Amino acid sequence: MSGKSLLAALALVSVTLGTVAWTRNAPPPGKLIVVKMVDVSATQFKFEPAAIVANAGDTVRFEQTGAMPHNVDFREVPPSSKLGEAKTGPFLAAAGEKYDLVIDGRFGAGLHNFTCTPHEALGMKGTLTVKK
Ligand SMILES: [Cu+2]
Predict the structure, then answer these.
(1) How far apart are CA 109 and CA 97, in angstroms?
(2) What angle do CA 66, 68, 69 make, to 5 degrees?
(3) How far is the CA of 29 from the centre of ligand 1 (A)?
(4) CA–CA dist 77, 74 (Å, integer)
């Protein structure tokens, strides 16, 4: 084995050991779950998908795709959920605007019903099931 290939082999071993250490110490990265806010027509709006399931550590990204302003307002949540300011998200107006919600300690396990405040009567509703 030449000196050069020995160095390359050592570098590979150290990268491999580094990966193992990282896997042991860091929590697994959460998933990114994208929910689009869609203008179906002038009088019909929806969250797509409307039913999502998330684990602790995941991020739910609400993404505006339409022209009407939409938000996320949690209405019925498990008793263990303490959403605080996350109960009602900001209005997203321009297409492409995003609102990221990290599923952290504020979210208890179970079913969370949410709606878009101005379009609740038009059926813009969704469910977030948190698994722990
Ligand atoms: Cu809306």
Answers:
(1) 28
(2) 110
(3) 30
(4) 7
- Which residue, 40, 45, 62, is CA-closest to 128? 62
Ligand 1 centroid to Cα of residue 78, in Å, is 23
Amino acid at 10: L
Q: Report residue 11 as tokens.
A: 């570098």
- Which residues is 74 bridged to in the sheet? 114
| 101 within 8 A of 128, measured Cβ to Cβ | no
Task: Give residue-wise pLDDT tens across range 7-47.
Answer: 555 444 444 444 444 555 555 679 999 999 999 999 999 99
Percent of the chain with pLDDT over 70: 79
The Cα 110–Cα 82 span in angstroms is 13
How many Å apart are CA 20 and CA 15, to the nearest integer?
9
Give distance in angstroms: CA of 110 to centre of ligand 1.
24
Read off the pLDDT of residues 80-132 as tens digits, 9 standing for 90 and up: 999 999 999 999 999 999 999 999 999 999 999 999 999 999 999 999 999 98
